[in-house]
């Protein structure tokens, strides 16, 4: 059985507390459980105070078969940030804009060049999703068509190589959109003239959508993950409805991270969808779900650890 853990962002102290609470103990430097495994949902780096320690814990568990892990968008961003554009020497696939430099700064500052290089190579080995017996795991959004596009491109490119990263980082390419969906979720453009401020104070004209639900009958406000500051109750555009692919209610449970949920208590999104990102890097808490094979998820299976002051 699996203990699924959401976005860590360099919060090693909280991770170790959570592992202890879940019954994991260090054996020869690796956290293990006699009967269970962890499944990490990505976003190990950036923002937090102990990025090196988080990476050491997670990588050692994965390599010693005590855990599984999927890639998050921050690991993906790091790969693109450090990969030179083969068509534009001196440029990188993720541009070194002030915002991008700031986002990755804590990771770069906390790791030596050799460590960073080693972890970037490890990031390449992480799957973007896991479809296991009884459950699924993906960082942001389970979408069969996007997964098929990425799966085909990975096979053709031989993995997360530069040949894969280039089109996946090129706006407008089919692979770019597919990776965006898997690792960052789906968005809907707001009506003309409508915007809102996100958690970082940036003005947004797109909203992250609750892709697992049918959009029929929803407004922009009711279909958005982040509604604080979003005062838009217009019905959704037909294009958003047409492009939706709601997660079937009969499908196996899927676990996601990514969305910085603001809830004071963890709660499932539907009977078979659970998000485990409760903003540990913004004063929230670190969260796990103890999955014991159930098809219908339960709020009683969440375990949390609050951020260390």
List the helices and strands and how they pair.
Elements: E1 2-5, H1 12-21, E2 25-27, E3 30-32, E4 37-40, H2 51-63, E5 67-69, H3 73-81, H4 98-110, H5 113-125, E6 129-132, E7 135-138, H6 144-157, H7 162-168, H8 174-184, E8 187-189, E9 196-197, E10 203-204, E11 206-208, H9 220-223, H10 238-242, E12 254-256, E13 273-275, E14 277-278, E15 285-291, E16 302-306
Parallel strand pairs: 1-4, 4-5, 7-12, 12-13
Antiparallel strand pairs: 1-15, 2-3, 6-7, 8-11, 9-10, 14-15, 15-16
Helix pairs in contact: 6-8
Can you give me a brief rundown of this structure?
The protein has a domain at 2-143 and 250-306: Metallo-dependent phosphatases (Purple Acid Phosphatase, chain A, domain 2). A hairpin with a 5-residue loop joins strand 9 and strand 10.
Tell how many strands the DSSP assignment holds.
16
Q: Report, as a whole number of angstroms, the end-to-end distance.
A: 32 Å
Strand content: 15-25%
Determine the number of helices (DSSP H or I, runs of at least 4 residues): 10
């Amino acid at each position: 059985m699996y203990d699924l853990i959401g976005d860590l962002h360099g919060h090693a102290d909280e991770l170790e507390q959570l592992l202890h609470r879940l019954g994991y103990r260090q054996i020869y430097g690796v956290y293990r459980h006699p009967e269970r495994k962890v499944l990490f949902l990505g976003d190990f780096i950036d923002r937090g105070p102990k990025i090196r320690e988080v990476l050491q814990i997670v990588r050692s568990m994965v390599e010693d078969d005590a855990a599984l892990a999927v890639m998050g968008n921050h690991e993906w961003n790091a790969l693109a940030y450090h990969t030179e554009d083969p068509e534009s020497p001196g440029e990188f696939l993720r541009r070194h804009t002030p915002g991008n430099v700031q986002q990755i700064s804590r990771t770069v500052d906390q790791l030596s060049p050799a460590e960073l290089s080693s972890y970037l190579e490890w990031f390449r080995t992480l799957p973007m999703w896991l479809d296991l017996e009884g459950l699924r795991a993906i960082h942001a959004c389970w979408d069969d068509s996007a997964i098929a596009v990425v799966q085909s491109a990975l096979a053709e490119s031989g993995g997360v190589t530069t040949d894969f990263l280039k089109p996946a980082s090129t706006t407008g390419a089919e692979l770019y959109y597919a990776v965006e969906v898997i690792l960052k979720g789906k968005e809907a453009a707001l009506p003309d003239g409508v915007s809102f401020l996100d958690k970082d104070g940036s003005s947004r004209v797109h909203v992250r959508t609750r892709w697992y639900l049918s959009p029929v009958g929803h407004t922009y406000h009711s279909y958005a993950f982040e509604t604080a500051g979003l005062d838009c109750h217009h019905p959704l555009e037909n294009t958003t409805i047409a492009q939706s692919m709601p997660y079937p209610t009969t499908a196996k449970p899927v676990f996601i991270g990514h969305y910085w949920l603001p809830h004071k208590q963890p709660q499932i999104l539907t009977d078979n969808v659970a998000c485990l990102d409760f903003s540990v890097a913004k004063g929230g808490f670190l969260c796990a779900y103890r999955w014991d094979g159930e098809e219908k998820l339960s709020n009683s299976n969440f375990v949390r650890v609050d951020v260390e002051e």
